[in-house]
Amino acid sequence: xxxxxxxxxxxxxxxxxxxxxxxxxxxxxxxxxxxxxxxxxxxxxxxxxxxxxxxxxxxxxxxxxxxxxxxxxxxxxxxxxxxxxxxxxxxxxxxxxxxxxxxxxxxxxxxxxxxxxxxxxxxxxxxxxxxxxxxxxxxxxxxxxxxxxxxxxxxxxxxxxxxxxxxxxxxxxxxxxxxxxxxxxxxxxxxxx
Length: 193
Hints:
The chain is an alpha+beta fold. The chain is built from four helices and six strands. The strands form two sheets. Strands 2-1-6-5 form a four-stranded antiparallel sheet, sandwiched between helices.
């Protein structure tokens, strides 16, 4: 028995694959195009936000650098003031005439116990340690140390940072300061971290 279509022509029982799956193919193509459009839109949004993210990262980095610089400057100022107080005390005859215990308290007040200051020493013009924050008078001769030589040879050297000295896993720096030519370089104070 032959089947006829509505137009009257015979219809084969086999229809083409495209005819049978046309709706499915259209849906698959539409879904693929939608995914591609979404992917392109996502990439465009990410690409447009990248310069802003980079600028934000630069701004944050600059803020960190400013904060670190201010912190370091503040710490160095505190350290410099502590060293200068020892130098001023070592050149003041009234302080030098005090009993050893009181002189030590005046020279090495609480500011010299700040974090990262492990030692402050008063040194005579020949490089010998005369006063020590730890109340020990080591018979140490610093006359060959670069920070002493710089201050011995240059009265206006100011705060000086020599090369680091490595002790185990810790790196130490010894900023030091001279009393200057007006005080005949009678004191050099050295500290280490």
